[in-house]
Amino acid sequence: MPNYIIPYSTVESLVHSSEAIATIQACPTLGSYLGAALEQEFGVVGIKTPPPYGVAQTDRWFRELGKLLGKEQEAENLIAEKKKNIYHK
Questions:
Q1: Where is 71: in which H helix or E strand?
Q2: For residue 24, what is the enclosing H or E element?
Q3: What are φ and ψ of residue 6, in 5° steps?
Q4: Which end of the chain is more exposed for a tag (fewer CB within 10 A), N or C?
Q5: Nearest one of 40, 4, 9, 10 to 22, comparing CA atoms
Q6: What percentage of the chain has pLDDT greater than the value 90?
Q7: How confident is the model at residue 63 (pLDDT cuts 50, 70, 90)?
Q8: Can you tell me the distance from the alpha carbon of 42 to that of 38, in angstroms, rounded to the nearest whole number?
Q9: Number of Cα atoms under 13 Å in the Cβ half of residue 48
Q10: Structure confidence by residue, pLDDT tens digits, 33-47
Q11: What are phi and psi of 25, to 5 degrees?
Q12: Residues with Cβ < 8 Å from 1, sequence gap 6 or more?
């Protein structure tokens, strides 16, 4: 399971962070230090793509997550499904 580091995360929500597959940061300013430490000390890779603001960046962000998890096709399927729901309503 990936980590999702958000501002004001609690200790309880971060307790298993070193066991995650990847780290996702909602705010690189606040999460980059912890993300870098998790990658350096525990090998938990962090998504380097900027946060998903807007459709194009959200697509890039999900593709990066899919790549990190070895689930590229699932990411592409999710992107296509969400776009279908948004643009074909």
A1: none
A2: strand 22-25
A3: -125, 160
A4: C
A5: 4
A6: 30
A7: very high
A8: 5
A9: 4
A10: 888 999 999 999 888
A11: -115, 130
A12: 20, 21
Q: Are 24 and 45 in contact (CB under 8 A)?
A: no
The answer to whether the CB of 17 falls within 8 A of the CB of 23 is yes
Indicate the helix (H) or strand (E) that contains 84: helix 72-87
- State the first-to-last Cα distance of the chain, in angstroms, to the nearest integer: 32
What is the Cα–Cα distance from 49 to 25, expressed in whole angstroms?
A: 10
pTM score > 0.85 for this model? Answer: no
Return the amino acid letter for 17.
S
Task: From 21, 19, 18, 23, select the one nearest 3 (Cα to Cα).
Answer: 23
- Least Cα distance to 35 among 24, 21, 26, 50 occurs for 24
Element containing residue 39 per DSSP (H, E): helix 28-42
Report the amino acid identity of residue 29: T
